[in-house]
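Researcher: I've been going back and forth with a colleague about how DASH complex subunit DAD1 might be arranged in three dimensions. Neither of us has a model we trust, so I'd like an independent prediction. The organism is Rhodotorula taiwanensis, in case that matters for your notes. Sequence below.
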Amino acid sequence: MNSAAFERERDRLVAEIAENLGKCVTAVNQLNRNIENVTSVDDGFSSVYDTWSRFQQALANGSYADAEQPAPPQLLARENDETIRLPPGIAPGRGETLQL
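Model: Here is an independent structure prediction for DASH complex subunit DAD1. You can compare it with whatever you and your colleague have in mind.
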């Protein structure tokens, strides 16, 4: 009688464990699908991120061309060799004074 009760309890616990493992597998599969969905949405925004990143660089550097490549050194000269003041944001040097 004791062994029969033990076997019934064991079978009940094994069935409960199997049911809970099935639920766990289902939950892990759902989590995997959700992660795949998030990853695919994230990949869709990479081009938007690149566009906004270039826009931010253009604002920081003054122009899109400046954001794409470093500006070549510009030589400004006057015959009397005086200091030249450059307008901010338009000319190289961001309005700094240049000594020629």
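Researcher: What would you highlight for our discussion?
Model: I'd start with this: Strands lie at 84-85, 97-98. After that, consider the following. The chain has a mean pLDDT of 74.
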